Amino acid sequence: MNQLERINYLEAFDVPAFLYAERADVITASVQKIRVQCLVIEVPNAQSFCQTGKTQDFLLKMLGAIGLQKSDIKCISVENNNLTHTLGQYDAKVVLSMSKGLALNANNHFVTHHPSDILTNDTLKREAWEVLKKVQVCLK
């Protein structure tokens, strides 16, 4: 088990940090961020794109239209109160939030509609496409 897995495991069981924390410089040096071209995030959703199915297929088609391949993409589901901590685990060139409730504040962070919403409402396609074009520019 690496240091990041250990920390996540202990946090999941609500073990107070002071019981397992090492010096901050040691932890920072041993924890490697996960590198990814495009990190796609959502809040927990019944039609999650993190699971195989229609919504995930549509998401991959959307991102494929701007030149991303499946290997370039990491999909995660995160609670809004865990967003900062979760983003800190990744070194992403672009972060695409597909849940309007997730607040992001950086030049490489974008927000658009969830694929399940787009599948049920064609009027959202244009807006999503405009955001995807901005993501494409950021990736270059």
Biggest beta sheet attributes = 4 strands, parallel
Percent in strands = 15-25%
Q: Low-confidence parts, pLDDT < 50 over ≥5 residues?
A: 23-30
> What is the rounded distance between the termini?
35 Å
Fraction in helix: 40-55%
Strand order of the largest sheet: 2-1-3-4
What is the tally of helical segments?
7
Coarse shape: globular
Radius of gyration, taken over Cα atoms and rounded to an integer in Å: 17 Å
Following the backbone from N to C, one meets helices and strands in this order, namely HHHEHEHEEHH
- Give the mean pLDDT: 82
Number of DSSP strands? 4
Coarse structural class: alpha/beta
Features:
globular, 7 helices, alpha/beta, 140 residues, four-stranded parallel beta sheet, 41% helix
Your description of this structure?
Helices cover 41% and strands 18% of the residues. The protein has 140 residues and is of the alpha/beta class. The chain has a 4-stranded parallel sheet. α4 links the parallel β1 (34-42) and β2. It is globular, with a radius of gyration of 17 Å.
Question: What topology does this entry show?
Answer:
Layout: H1 3-12, H2 17-20, H3 24-30, E1 34-42, H4 54-64, E2 73-77, H5 83-87, E3 90-97, E4 109-111, H6 115-120, H7 125-139
Parallel strand pairs: 1-2, 1-3, 3-4
In a few lines, what is going on in this structure?
By secondary structure, this protein is of the alpha/beta class. It has helices at 3-12, 17-20, 24-30, 54-64, 83-87, 115-120, 125-139, and strands at residues 34-42, 73-77, 90-97, 109-111. The protein has seven helices and four strands.
